[in-house]
């Protein structure tokens, strides 16, 4: 083994990076249907990567020191505002991603209400986990409301939840669309009930924000969700999703500067410079911002319309193709670019995911939740259109293989033990045993097995709190120093 403290030649460093990256999922080619979003435009990717590199050392901490970053940020915010029917009063910030945008929306709603002792927010139970992270970080209670049979937020139930503690509710939130099922919540109805009660309404459009406006332009039926809806006070839109920018760029918009003011942090309570931040980060590389600016400029308005047409055609073809298959079905007709699939009793979704991976396709398993069964998640990209026939062939073969294998069976005794476990009472040795039982640890330490279906089937039996605890234990053991 080479000495890690010795300097390496540039060629050796780049070769090692390529070697490490060879084990990752592919980010281009349209076959990774989670985590990455592929325009299928190599020239755009090249320009964006060069922009990231050119501004990697620039620091967004002080916009007066790097005015180029401020210019690019204001231009991106302006383009996003125009796309989302924003009035002239709208302001915004570029953040590192959808989670940071959601965190800031919650933090601003909380801090704007200094009179509230026990702040709470009302969410459909399909809202992104980033809201739960915000609740954990900021001490804001998340009041979850079950969605209807259509997987969309229930406005009447959300109104009732707000009315349980109207003086403590600082925010209601909806999705456009929800990540797990790909449908747009009834934003107009929820925003109206929020406005009537003097509560902010945030629209999480991190997935759909750069697609739905073009979908409407193409003549698709899109429920109202933008700032054209009275009562919508903030919207988050990820540029590194369907604006096809490099990772690390999202936009959070507020209807007025007054609504954004509580988002800012300033401190002069120390002998150094007065800290002033518009986002969670202080020092932040200008690279992702420049990469997003370059991608948006390179693609342009007509380009995004074309990419939206392509990705929606891909979604239509996938939905139609799935309809011709036995054993698997679309959970709910998608409103945008996300598709959720479920299986019947002849097989299980976890085995289908494994079989798809064996055929070169990465799809994402989603565990059961609130009485609804486990599903298979697809985040479709424009680059997927050229490969839809291959995807459907792989899916048909994967479902057939899963049916031949039969659903994953968990030993009844193990299932009984898992159901009775209290994660709060477990120690490190207990978690080590659980990781081994789940197939996440073996004689040579931690490792993911070649097939994840048995692991997911076992996790699917566990209560959400136990799932969280086991996976935290796994991540804790993964993230140990390389020495």
TrEMBL record:
Pfam families hit by this protein: Pyridoxal_deC
Coiled-coil blocks: none
Gene3D superfamilies, per the entry: Aspartate Aminotransferase, domain 1, Type I PLP-dependent aspartate aminotransferase-like (Major domain)
Swiss-Prot/TrEMBL cofactor(s): pyridoxal 5'-phosphate
MF GO annotations: transaminase activity
Keyword Amino-acid biosynthesis: no
SUPFAM superfamilies tied to this protein: PLP-dependent transferases
Keywords: Aminotransferase, Lyase, Pyridoxal phosphate, Transferase
Family (UniProt): Belongs to the group II decarboxylase family. Sphingosine-1-phosphate lyase subfamily.
Protein name, UniProt field: Aminotransferase class V-fold PLP-dependent enzyme
Species name: Nocardioides marinquilinus
């Amino acid at each position: 083994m080479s000495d890690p403290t010795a300097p390496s030649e540039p060629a050796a460093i780049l070769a090692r990076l390529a070697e490490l990256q060879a084990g990752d999922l592919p980010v281009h080619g349209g076959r990774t249907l989670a985590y990455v979003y592929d325009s299928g435009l190599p020239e755009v990717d090249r320009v964006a990567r060069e922009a990231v590199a050119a501004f990697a050392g620039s620091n967004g901490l002080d916009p007066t020191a790097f005015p180029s970053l401020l210019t690019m940020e204001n231009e991106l915010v302006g383009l996003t505002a125009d796309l989302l029917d924003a009035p002239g009063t709208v302001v915004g910030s570029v953040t590192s991603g959808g989670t940071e945008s959601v965190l800031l929306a919650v933090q601003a709603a909380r801090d704007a209400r200094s009179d509230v002792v026990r702040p709470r927010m009302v969410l459909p139970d399909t809202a992104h986990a980033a809201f739960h992270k915000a609740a954990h970080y900021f001490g804001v209670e998340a009041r979850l409301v079950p969605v209807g049979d259509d997987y969309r937020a229930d406005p009447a139930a959300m109104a009732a939840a707000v009315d349980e503690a109207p003086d403590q509710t600082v925010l209601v939130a909806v999705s456009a669309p929800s990540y797990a099922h790909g449908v747009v919540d009834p934003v107009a109805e929820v925003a109206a009930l929020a406005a009537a009660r003097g509560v902010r309404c945030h629209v999480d459009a991190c997935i759909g924000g750069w697609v739905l406006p073009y979908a409407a332009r193409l003549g698709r039926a899109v429920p109202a969700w933008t700032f054209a809806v009275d009562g919508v006070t903030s919207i988050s839109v990820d540029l590194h999703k369907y604006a096809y920018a490099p990772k690390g760029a999202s936009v959070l918009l507020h209807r007025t500067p007054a609504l954004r003011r509580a988002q800012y942090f300033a401190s002069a309570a120390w002998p150094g410079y007065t800290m002033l931040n518009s986002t969670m980060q202080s020092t932040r590389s200008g690279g992702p911002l420049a990469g997003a600016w370059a991608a948006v400029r390179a693609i342009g308005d007509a380009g995004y319309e074309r990419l939206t047409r392509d990705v929606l055609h891909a979604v239509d073809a996938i939905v139609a193709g799935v309809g011709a298959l036995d054993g698997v079905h679309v959970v709910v007709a998608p409103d945008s670019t996300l598709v959720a699939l479920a299986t019947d009793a002849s097989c299980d979704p976890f085995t289908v995911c494994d079989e798809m991976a064996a055929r070169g396709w990465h799809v994402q398993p989603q565990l059961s939740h609130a009485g609804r069964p486990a599903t298979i998640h697809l985040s479709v990209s424009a680059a997927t259109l050229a490969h839809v026939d291959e995807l459907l062939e792989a899916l048909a073969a994967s479902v057939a293989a899963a049916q031949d294998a039969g659903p994953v069976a968990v030993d009844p005794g193990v299932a009984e033990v898992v159901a009775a476990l209290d994660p709060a009472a477990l120690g490190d040795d207990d978690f080590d045993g659980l990781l081994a039982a789940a197939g996440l640890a073996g004689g040579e330490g931690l490792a993911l097995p070649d097939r994840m279906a048995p692991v997911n089937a076992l996790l699917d039996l566990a209560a959400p709190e136990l799932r969280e605890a086991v996976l935290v234990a796994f991540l804790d053991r993964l993230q140990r120093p390389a020495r």
